[in-house]
């Protein structure tokens, strides 16, 4: 974001002379500054993980979930401005129910992603401010396997094999690219995800952080669920060892 | 007074007021699933009161290459429903760049039948084939209730042949067997039902698409039945004299 | 029959009555009776319910103005008596089914009945009354009084009350008691009046009669009043029209005057007043 | 009782050679009672175009006002004289707009083409179905009587005088048998030179 | 009222010039109905209309009687309506509805032809009619036979007031259709030539006109060929002619009518209508 808005950034309804819409870029920035979230598609499932800082010990455990569901089979990972995340999630649930009522079958992942993208895009047209959040839509079914869609504040929606958003997304993506994702079983995938989150963690900031994680895959029978804490703890343990080994190698 | 007064809507042909009997397809619709497709069979009579307004109606209305809808009830209503749903399915297919599944197409029909259940008199059979589920047959009676059926009959002629279908249906029938039973059933229904008649149309929907064949009553492959001949109606003593 | 069942059943006269019944073959006045529908079906409702009230050929002839009044001679040259004046239109709804109906029917030499309401009802029952009166005169060797004739008429109508007869008649005549007018209708009413008008145009006729009627008039005045009243009634009432028929009954007898066209009467009346009644086409 | 005969009234139009006649009775009644005898049902719309409105008087008045409004608008917009055909179509559309809650009046249009003087007559039902025969049309309570008598009284190519007599005698004949119309009649004879308005002597009962 | 307000007022009035139905009088009319007033009669084309296709073309025909109750409201009404050069519609039912529906169809089709630069197709006409009529649930009493020749060949459709449509080789509608359809059922053959088809349609119309009170007077025919459309009529069949021509002419001498008052309205001679 090199240039200053110089008056072209006051509303999403205004283009800058070089063809940019600053408001959308600012919204994207809100996502880029948030905590790193990654989604990985393995051999038979998808995991989505996010690192969360715990600002105070007075918070209830997981008082600010970023892993949610739009329907039983659709996991949502929401990164960015938190109230915007909730609004998107509510809309997603509503659309999911509407589809279920109209067609008596669960909304397909692709359809939900398209619907959400359309909705988010509507807010970039200047009537209001854009959403300051990105949404992962994760699913798995027997026929098509795992799917990851990401909807960005601009209304863009792509399908990914794996992706990362947030503060340390570049580092995370570099880590992800080293993996042979298609061969990873679910438990392996969880471990790798935790390892990546921990590996990209800012130095000296490993206090008061926690990892929230959801998965959807063959092991959950296609339902999007939170990964149990015990599994995460075990994965952290494994990851810490793996990272230490790496350090030794260096 | 108001020109929609009941007496003005009713038919008074002698006074030049033209009859407004609702045109309905008092119908026989028979359909069966087989492995890999569906067979549907219909008669071809459309009547307005006691007048047969068409004897060669096609009640098997194609919606897509792999989906047909068989109509019964008020003809105007069912034609309109078929038109509107066809439009919706085409629109969805384009928007989503994906074929609409038979199940979802049925649900679109259901929505329509349910939302307008007070205004419309329509009952349909939706039959089709898609890659995921293969041949499927759904019955939607008036009101918007949906059931998937392996073998079904609907319309006024169906009452005459449900027994026949129960007797002749068996699991894992082949396409040829289904066609034979369906054709026979439609034939039986038109034989007894006053509001069914005309030709028999048999449609087969499978992965190759839809294939509709027509059987004329004067053709060789039209099912033929002989009703039991009646006894003479003379009293016995007169009968004796006649001999 | 209705007309025959009003003999007094007094104990004293019973023997005499029985004797008469056994040995004198008293003329039977009328053996007529309507074939009535079975099962207590009311003909009026039945017709209404099954053929509709709108049906043109079941709308019986209606719409009339009839009037009659008594007067005394104003000068010795006049006769006095009764003037009876009527229009001549028969209509069914808006349709004028006849323009020349004689609505003053003879009952006897010096007695008439007017007809208003259903034309067939009036004509038929007037004939029955006339027959009764004739037989009465033959039997009693004296002409019947207007009071008796009208009472018989009223009794007959009362017997059919509520069954759909439509009669509004004035029985007018000169008898031993002098001139008399009795108004009789299908509800069973019977009343003696000096000035009387019946029919859809009666209110209009009353307007003229009340304005101009005097107990003592010359014959000419009386006739003019009759014509004038009918003319004005036909002008306002679309159910009345045609010609005005007028009868004068005096102590000496009955005089029928030829019908006078009411439309012509109206033009004459307007000319008399010097009033311009022709419509003046206005600019739009 | 039909609402169409509540007030009574009859209008007749006949076409001749470069002339048309339009005749109206003058009665305004309430069922059986005659309330007024100066209610003409024929109205001038433009020089050579007249419209007759039979039926329920209050609707006739409303419709007349709507017709005049539309006619004014037409002349302002198009800057030319209204042809009788155009007026008829206009009224037909007006009536049909009220297809499901109609005005109880049957309009009749008679006139000459402002340029060619071709006669035009037509009658409509209450929802604007135009019937435009070449000979004669009638609306109102006396319609049935008029249609019969006109069949014999009408001849091809009548001149204005003959046409007036035929029209006047036809409507007088109808008034003889129609209780809901009458009390005087007015005949408008429209020719290419002028319009003759004549009050004719009719029965007053 | 300010100037803009009054302008808006005028504008609003201008917009009220047709198109949509007005339901203003409905409540009043229903109330009057309850008070016992009978509704007026509407003109209906209690009709015989017939159409039959032949090798390459189509013949359509109709009688010409319009009735209102027992009165013949119009002896020569035109029931064969032109939609485009090569598409025609015959109508039975409420006469006003037929006039308006066919008028709407012909203008829509013409607009479409101008917009696309192609001849309209029969099925387009049929679907427009069907959708319009279905919207009004049969309350617009128009029963149509829509037929014509388009680049895809000759087509004939039957369309009822409820919005039911059927493709037919031959069809009859109207109160006289029972008689007409019997003739068609008996004599119709696939692949007739034009003369045969024309004779058949005429025969069917005769049957309807003689068997039905509400049909008669004369008949109109339209023969639609791929290259040309021929309109024929009115043809008066023998049994519809007046039995005796009028021998006696009722001619009144000028002055036979008593004239009470007269007035002459002269026309204003206006050179041009200048309206400012």
Automatic annotation (TrEMBL), chain B:
The record's active-site residues are 27 (nucleophile)
Q: Which domain of life is it from?
A: Eukaryota
Keyword Nucleus in record: yes
Q: Which family does it belong to?
A: Belongs to the peptidase T1B family.
What species is this protein from?
A: Mesorhabditis belari
Q: What's this protein's name? A: Proteasome subunit beta
* Major localization listed first in the record, in broad terms: cytoplasm
Q: Which Pfam families match?
A: Proteasome
UniProtKB/TrEMBL annotation, chain C:
**What is its subcellular localisation?**
Nucleus
Annotated GO CC locations: cytoplasm; nucleus; proteasome core complex
Q: Mind telling me which Gene3D superfamilies this protein's record contains?
A: Glutamine Phosphoribosylpyrophosphate, subunit 1, domain 1
Q: Name one GO molecular function term.
A: threonine-type endopeptidase activity
Q: Which InterPro entries match?
A: Ntn_hydrolases_N, Pept_T1A_subB, Proteasome_sua/b, Proteasome_suB-type
PROSITE patterns named among the record's database cross-references? PROTEASOME_BETA_2 (PS51476)
> Would I find Ligase among this entry's keywords?
no
Cite the EC number: 3.4.25.1
Which catalytic reaction applies to this protein? Answer: Cleavage of peptide bonds with very broad specificity
- Give the keywords, sorted: Cytoplasm, Hydrolase, Nucleus, Protease, Proteasome, Threonine protease, Zymogen
Q: Where is the signal peptide?
A: none
Q: Among its keywords, does the record have Nucleus?
A: yes
Name the Pfam families for this protein: Proteasome (PF00227)
Q: From the UniProt record, give one GO term of the biological process aspect.
A: proteolysis involved in protein catabolic process
**Where along the chain is the active site annotated?**
64
Q: How does the annotation summarize its subunit structure?
A: The 26S proteasome consists of a 20S proteasome core and two 19S regulatory subunits. The 20S proteasome core is composed of 28 subunits that are arranged in four stacked rings, resulting in a barrel-shaped structure. The two end rings are each formed by seven alpha subunits, and the two central rings are each formed by seven beta subunits. The catalytic chamber with the active sites is on the inside of the barrel.
| Protein's name according to its UniProt entry | proteasome endopeptidase complex
UniProtKB/TrEMBL annotation, chain D:
Q: What keywords is this UniProt entry annotated with?
A: Cytoplasm, Nucleus, Proteasome
The compartments listed are: Cytoplasm; Nucleus
Q: Name one GO biological process term.
A: proteasome-mediated ubiquitin-dependent protein catabolic process
Query: Per its UniProt record, what CDD domains does this chain match?
Result: proteasome_beta_type_3
Q: What is its main location?
A: cytoplasm
- GO cellular component labels: cytoplasm; nucleus; proteasome core complex, beta-subunit complex
Q: Does the keyword Nucleus apply?
A: yes
User: Gene3D superfamilies attached here?
Assistant: Glutamine Phosphoribosylpyrophosphate, subunit 1, domain 1
Pfam families the UniProt entry points to: Proteasome
Which InterPro entries does its entry note? Ntn_hydrolases_N, Proteasome_beta_3, Proteasome_bsu_CS, Proteasome_sua/b, Proteasome_suB-type
**What family is reported?**
Belongs to the peptidase T1B family.
Spell out the subunit comment.
The 26S proteasome consists of a 20S proteasome core and two 19S regulatory subunits. The 20S proteasome core is composed of 28 subunits that are arranged in four stacked rings, resulting in a barrel-shaped structure. The two end rings are each formed by seven alpha subunits, and the two central rings are each formed by seven beta subunits. The catalytic chamber with the active sites is on the inside of the barrel. Component of the proteasome complex.
What protein is this chain from? Proteasome subunit beta
The organism named in the record is Mesorhabditis belari
Automatic annotation (TrEMBL), chain E:
Question: Which SUPFAM superfamilies does this one have?
Answer: N-terminal nucleophile aminohydrolases (Ntn hydrolases) (SSF56235)
Top-level class of the enzyme under EC nomenclature: hydrolase
Residues forming the catalytic site: 47 (nucleophile)
The EC number(s) given in the record are: 3.4.25.1
- Which UniProt key words apply to this protein? Cytoplasm, Hydrolase, Nucleus, Protease, Proteasome, Threonine protease
> What Pfam families has UniProt attached to this entry?
Proteasome
Q: Which InterPro entries match?
A: Ntn_hydrolases_N, Pept_T1A_subB, Proteasome_sua/b, Proteasome_suB-type
Tell me the compartments it is located in: Nucleus
- Please indicate if the UniProt record lists Nucleus as a keyword: yes
Subcellular location, principal? nucleus
Please list the GO biological process terms of this entry: proteolysis involved in protein catabolic process
Q: How does it assemble?
A: The 26S proteasome consists of a 20S proteasome core and two 19S regulatory subunits. The 20S proteasome core is composed of 28 subunits that are arranged in four stacked rings, resulting in a barrel-shaped structure. The two end rings are each formed by seven alpha subunits, and the two central rings are each formed by seven beta subunits. The catalytic chamber with the active sites is on the inside of the barrel.
Its recorded name reads: proteasome endopeptidase complex
Q: Which organism is it from?
A: Mesorhabditis belari
The root-end lineage is: Eukaryota, Metazoa, Ecdysozoa, Nematoda, Chromadorea
